[in-house]
């Protein structure tokens, strides 16, 4: 009964550690969301820069899983190519070693209870006594940090002090010591399985450090478990890549191959690698004294983890292109890798682990949806001029299909965005989410307007109700609308909205959008007036239905311009009646 209670105490302590790790990672992501996007943008320079970005991003969020899932998502969204993604993943493996050093430096050197609870208290009250979002996010981070170390302290207390001297346990542990290849592989597999089950290499690392400091496992066995953790942590990214683009799946596979190849060459020289760490780190990790083990062994294990990942990255970075080609062997290219147009192409990965960064992929998805609206304008322009009935019917069908696609995408994106807003988002991210809701609705309505125009043209195609002057005028307003719809697409792909350049240019861009919409409205009135004058003067004879049809087409084009301006208002952060920039707010 006592053994079962001790087991549950250990599991409870582990759960507290995992909860603290997640809270700390979430807080850091919210506090540095914009910086993460900036760092990721820098990854496009070269493989070395990409690797450094992976180190810094993982160091910021304290989670290699969050980094790799983010990389898979951005690769799926087309923001990173395969080589850049692999470079960031290489760096993530180095960045994740900081967790082991934090635990080694603070978790075993001082009495955790002296600072864990005060840190939790400080972080808790920081979330309520300040109005500044950054301080609230840092408060959440401190609470997670304190809970993490409180869980570590409870894990240490959950292991009985006399357990290491138990004869039966000592005999069993000696049998699985990595003295030969079989035992080494068993320990590596055990570390991988534990990491897969817990979905956190940091948690397994903390368990390894705790058990080693208590004398339950020796230094070589702990190192074997660390190797397994490096393989097991790749499962998270591969799960996130399910259903994503082939390039995203290749990036996740590259993560596995990178760590697996690294483990293979270390296994081949395992005894020599252990001796290298013994030489680099002072103190002997083979003593039986618990006090000495707590002071020395965690540093040896952390050093093993760091040296392994640094050397593996140094060896594999020059071989990045061959590694990328190796992923093509398992996931070969096809003539056409495009997904169904009805599918979400940029939000089909596990972005919920990094909701702040999901907003970037969301904008890419909306820009793609906006592309169908622009395509409608193109098809309508051609349909106005084409003489062949078969070609005309095909163009009209294409417009209807594009509108159907926008409807399906609107439903899927709305569901995804709703789920995202129910997550643990910062206030700024929530404001952006509601802005994107309005943008999504406006794009869908633009698609409806395009379909109405196509149906009117289809209905009157054989009746020839439009003169050549009418057709020329409709083509003119259609081209203006096409030009106007390009601005929202550019703004959706502009991820630098917090830069000083954007703030300086926002008012100018908004004023241009307002001027374009005014010109479009004036053009609508002009076209209706000129046609009325032609009819009154007898230059053109049309039926009442044709008069209404022409007006409906022109009005729907003008409405598309109105919705485009509404999108500009939302993305630029302006209200129509107030030209003062208000980033993150919805337009009324």
Q: How would you summarize the topology of this molecule?
A:
Elements: H1 2-31, H2 33-42, H3 47-61, H4 64-76, H5 82-95, H6 97-107, H7 116-129, H8 133-158, H9 167-175, H10 181-198, H11 201-213, H12 219-232, H13 234-240, H14 246-268, H15 270-280, H16 290-316, H17 320-330, H18 355-385, H19 389-421, H20 427-460, H21 468-492, H22 500-536, H23 544-572
Helix pairs in contact: 1-8, 2-3, 3-5, 4-5, 4-13, 4-14, 5-14, 5-16, 6-11, 6-16, 7-8, 10-12, 11-12, 11-16, 12-14, 12-16, 13-14, 14-16, 14-17, 15-16, 18-19, 18-20, 18-21, 19-20, 20-23, 21-22, 21-23, 22-23
Describe what you observe in this structure.
With 588 residues, the chain is mostly helical. Helices cover 77% and strands 0% of the residues. It contains 23 helices and no strands. Mean pLDDT is 79; it is low at 575-588.
What is the β-strand count? 0
The average pLDDT value, as a whole number, equals: 79
- Topology as a string of helices (H) and strands (E): HHHHHHHHHHHHHHHHHHHHHHH
Number of helical stretches of at least 4 residues: 23
Helix content: over 70%
Rg from C-alpha positions? 30 Å
Unreliably modeled segments: 575-588
């Amino acid at each position: 009964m006592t053994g079962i209670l001790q087991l549950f105490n250990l599991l409870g302590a582990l759960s507290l550690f995992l909860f603290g790790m997640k809270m700390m990672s979430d807080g850091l992501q919210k506090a540095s969301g914009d910086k993460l996007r900036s760092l990721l943008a820098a990854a496009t320079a070269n493989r070395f820069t990409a690797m450094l970005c992976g180190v810094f991003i993982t160091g910021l969020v304290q989670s290699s899983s969050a980094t790799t899932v983010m990389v898979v998502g951005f690769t799926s969204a087309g923001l990173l190519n395969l080589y850049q993604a692999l470079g960031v993943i290489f760096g993530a493996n180095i960045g994740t070693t900081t967790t082991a050093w934090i635990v080694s430096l603070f978790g075993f050197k001082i009495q955790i209870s002296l600072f864990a609870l005060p840190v939790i208290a400080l972080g808790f009250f920081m979330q309520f006594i300040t109005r500044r979002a950054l301080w609230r996010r840092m408060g959440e981070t401190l609470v997670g940090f304190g809970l993490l170390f409180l869980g570590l302290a409870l894990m240490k207390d959950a292991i009985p002090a006399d357990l290491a001297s138990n004869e039966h346990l000592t005999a069993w542990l000696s049998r699985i010591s990595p003295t030969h290849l079989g035992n080494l592989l068993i320990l590596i597999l055990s570390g991988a399985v534990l990491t897969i089950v817990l979905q956190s290499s940091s948690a397994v690392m903390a368990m390894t450090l705790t058990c080693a400091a208590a004398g339950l496992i020796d230094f070589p066995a702990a190192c074997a478990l660390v190797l397994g953790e490096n393989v097991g942590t790749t499962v998270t990214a591969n799960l996130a890549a399910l259903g994503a683009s082939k390039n995203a799946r290749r990036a996740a596979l590259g993560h596995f191959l990178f760590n697996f190849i690294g483990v293979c060459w270390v296994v081949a020289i395992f005894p020599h690698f252990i001796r290298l760490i013994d030489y680099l780190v002072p103190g002997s990790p083979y003593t039986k004294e618990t006090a000495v083990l707590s002071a020395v062994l965690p540093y040896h294990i952390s050093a093993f983890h760091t040296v392994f990942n640094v050397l593996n990255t140094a060896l594999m970075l020059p071989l990045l292109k061959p590694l990328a080609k190796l992923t093509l062997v398992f996931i070969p290219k096809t003539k056409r890798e495009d997904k169904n147009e009805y599918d979400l192409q940029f939000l089909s990965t596990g972005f919920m682990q990094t909701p702040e960064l999901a907003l970037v992929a969301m904008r890419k998805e909306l820009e793609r949806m906006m592309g169908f609206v622009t395509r409608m304008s193109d098809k309508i322009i051609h349909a106005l001029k084409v003489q062949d009935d078969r070609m005309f019917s095909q163009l009209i069908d294409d417009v209807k299909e594009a509108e159907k696609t926008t409807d399906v995408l609107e439903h899927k994106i709305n569901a995804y965005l709703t789920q995202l807003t129910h997550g643990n988002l910062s206030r700024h991210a929530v404001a952006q989410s509601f802005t994107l809701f309005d943008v999504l609705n406006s794009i869908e309505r633009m698609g409806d307007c395009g379909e109405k125009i196509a149906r009117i043209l289809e209905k009157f195609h054989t009746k020839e109700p439009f003169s050549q002057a009418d057709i020329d005028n409709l083509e003119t307003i259609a081209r203006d609308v096409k030009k106007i719809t390009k601005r929202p697409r550019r703004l959706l792909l502009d991820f630098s909205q917090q830069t000083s350049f954007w703030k300086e240019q926002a008012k100018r861009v908004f004023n241009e959008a307002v001027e374009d919409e005014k010109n479009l409205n004036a053009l609508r009135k002009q076209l209706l007036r000129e046609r009325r004058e032609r009819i009154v003067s007898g230059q053109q004879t049309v039926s009442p239905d044709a008069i209404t049809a022409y007006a409906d087409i022109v009005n729907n084009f003008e409405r598309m311009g109105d919705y485009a301006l509404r999108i500009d208002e939302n993305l630029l952060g302006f209200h129509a009646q107030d030209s003062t920039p208000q980033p993150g707010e919805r337009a009324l």
